[in-house]
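Sequence in, structure out.
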Amino acid sequence: MKALPTIALGMLTAFLALLPLVSITAAATVSVSVSPTNPIGAVALSITGTVSPAPGAGVNAFIQVFNSAGKTVASSVAAVDPTAGTFSYGFTTGGTSLWTTGTYSVSANVAGTTGSTTFTYTCTETVCGSTTTTPAAAISSINVQVTAETPVWPGQSTWVSVLTSSATNGSLVEATFQTIHYHTPAGGLVTLCTNTVTTNCTGTFARIHIGFYSWTFTLPSSSIDGGYFIHAWVNNGNNQQGQGLGAFTVNSGIAQQPT
């Protein structure tokens, strides 16, 4: 049978070995942000976060989104970059009765440390109990024309352009991009950078002139063949909005053809 001092020494040694881990965890901070911050109806919502200091390999963030009644409307586990400490999660808002108009909270728990933020959601669907609809003029008052180079191949530098014009008289109008992204055949979502979205996005944004915008970006070399669909959502103040849809096709076979 071991003597009591020996047992006590062993317990003390084990406790002291844990102290550095506890202090690192206690010193860590988790910051969270969402985009857009005022989604309306069915919108692609992006949640991004940063753990500081970076936690190293093998760490995940448990992300939850709660409506104003405290009910969970979305959740996911996202890997934390071991060097940068960043993580992200994207999904489309709405679609169920839980998505009622109100203030929503987002929490991200990383190894016991939690970060949070909020956003305001407006329901426009009957499924969530909405009794009013956005006036048709507000939805269609901006025409959004989306074009893209097609076909393209994995690893190619390519482009997307958008033209925004008044639905009333056809004249070009200035617009702010709430989001522009493309959906991959595998179900992924890639956000293109704009003058308001500058992080966790890809491509170079350029305003050519009023109502005329373009993006240049390089497709990942791992892009699979198939159809890619581009969604652009713009507004011009609170009462003018517009949505546009475009597409391009990836065909790895054409990369080997002579030009």
